[in-house]
Structure formats: C-alpha cells, structure tokens
Amino acid sequence: MKAIAIRMHGGLDVLRLEDLPDPEASAGRVVVRVKAVALNHLDIFVREGWAGLKLAFPHVLGADVAGVVEAIGPGVKGVAPGDEVVVNPGVSCGRCRACLSGDDVMCREYSILGEHVSGGYAQKVGVPSQNVVPKPKNLSFDEAACVPLVFLTAWHALVARAGLRAGETVLVHAAGSGVGSAGIQIAKLLGATVIATAGSDAKCERARRLGADHAVNYSRQDFLTEVRRITGKRGVDVLFEHVGKATWEKSLLALARGGRLVTVGATTGYDPPTDLRHVFYRSLSILGSTMGSKGELFDVLALVEQGKLKPVLDRVLPLAEAGAAQKLLEDRAQFGKIVLNP
Length: 342
Hints:
- The chain has helices at 41-48, 97-100, 141-145, 148-161, 178-189, 201-210, 223-230, 248-253, 276-281, 294-305, 322-330, and strands at 2-6, 16-19, 29-38, 59-60, 64-72, 84-87, 90-91, 111-112, 124-128, 132-134, 169-172, 193-198, 214-217, 236-241, 255-263, 285-288, 313-318, 337-341.
- The protein is α/β, with parallel strands linked by helices.
- The strands form four sheets. Strands 3, 5, 6, 9, 10, 17 and 18 form a seven-stranded mixed beta sheet that branches.
- It folds into two domains: 2-147 and 311-341, Quinone Oxidoreductase, Chain A, domain 1 (Alpha-Beta Complex); 151-288, Quinone Oxidoreductase, Chain A, domain 1.
- The protein is built from eleven helices and 18 strands.
- The protein is globular.
- The mean pLDDT is 96.
- α4 crosses α5.
C-alpha cells in the first residue's frame, strides 16, 4: 500500500511517500481502506519527536480516519466488509478496570492512532474491531474524518471534565483550529455564552457563524482585556485551553472566582509559569483532559447525524501532499480541518 511514513524525527522533509506492507486482519482486528484522513497538530509533534517518544520506524502518522472495512479477523462480530466507518483514534487494552468501566482513556496501555501506533496517512489501516463505528449517513468521508479526535477531545473536556452548564460563560481559544471549532459548537449546544479567540477578522467571523457570541482578534486585541470588558470584570466560568505557554498566564487571569480551566494541549509550549496565588486565593480549578471514551464518541456522532454538531472542513489534498498540508497547519492558514485523500 502507499503511505506517508517517517523513518526519523525532523522537519517536513522526513515525510516520505512509500510502499509499505498491507496491514493484516488478525484476531479481533479489522482492516479499513482509508477514504479520508484529517490532520491534527499531533501529527506535527510526532513528526518532530519529543523526549521519551519511542516509535517503531517506519511510522505512519494520522489519527482521524474515515473509510470502508475491507477485511475482518477471526472473532470479529458486528462489523462486516463494506461497512462505512469512522475510526476511534483511542486504543486501549479492553480488559482492565478502566476499560470495562467505560473510562478507557485511563487505561495504562492507552495509545492514540498515529502517535504511539501507526495511523492513517495510508491507503489502509489496521485497528481493533471495537475502534470502528458507523459513519454518520449525512456526512461524506472527508467530513467524517474531521470528527473523531477533535470533537471527542472537546466533548470530554467540556462535558465530563469541566462540567460546563447552561448559562455559564466559556472562553474557547483558537477558533480556527479543529478542536477550537468543535469546542465552540459543543459549548453553544450546552447553552453557554461563548467567547472565542482567533488570529484574524475573517476567522472571528467564521467563529461567530459557528455560534460564538463574541469573537476576539488576538492579533490586535488583548483577549484578557476583552474578556473582562465582555463579562463586566467578572471573568469566565470555564476556559478551554489548548494553546499552552503563549496564553496560559492570561488564561488563568481570565477566569472568574471558582472558575475551571481545562487544558487539552500545549501547541505553543508545555512549561508556562503559573502564579499559584491566583489559583488558591480565587479557588480556581486546573483540569487536564485527553481524548474521550469510546462511549462518548457514540454521543458525539449521534449529535453530528442530527445536524446539531457539524465538522468544519477547510480543504482536501491528495495524500502525496502531506508535507504541504502540514505546512498549512503550522502556518495556521486553515479554519477547521485539512483532509488528505489516499
């Protein structure tokens, strides 16, 4: 099969179109013919590498896959060749207490497709059978690939971790990102007042169309000043943080007393300074969140099929242009998701 693989960490030049062996449908697993794979910043981080990340090279990136089941292994039930599916990127053991309690993100063996195990920048991908779910009928493959990682991440963070409630105010950073565009929609669906940040007036307008009540252009406005103005100096109840170092200090200051900051990423850096006096004196909660459970993806996809949540597709490129696609993501030149077609 054709695949974009890396054989070392590095820049865009380490992305190579190669011929790799087809995955096999071994016991309990299925092979999916990839129709579309969406990019995430995670792909860039894995390509560049970090201390402690150990991969088996050649490694294939890509967490967000939509496609058609091509083959099933022994013991697989409820899935058949020809099924149109979305792949849940979270892989867990399926037998520990966390997995059997529906909290598979806490599994000691938890991994993410394309990060710890080879993913979907390929014509085919092999995954455990419990990781494929029916594709929403109202979505194309390109649209469906935009859903799994970012909507699952935003849903788990805002619903399960932060407990966002109707009537509360939430700040969502980076509206043009995949997870930001998902967060805006989920927060609005929950009945919150949404303040979004973005790097241009055009992206701010797109954020409003997604449901944001207020949009702040951080390239020419200070988001902390704007949050205080919009909330009458009170601050927000919940802050959806995934930018990291560049926004962290002001994000904490943007919270109301008793506010909750939930973080799902650190795109601009993982080691920001934190003034603990603001945390304890104002009774702030800092919550970490990674992905979401397999069960939560069913909740998300049901809302997508009902049209209450909508994937945000920026553009589609051929698989061979994975490098150009990642460069667009690095430059923040997109709004929503970039998709590759094998």
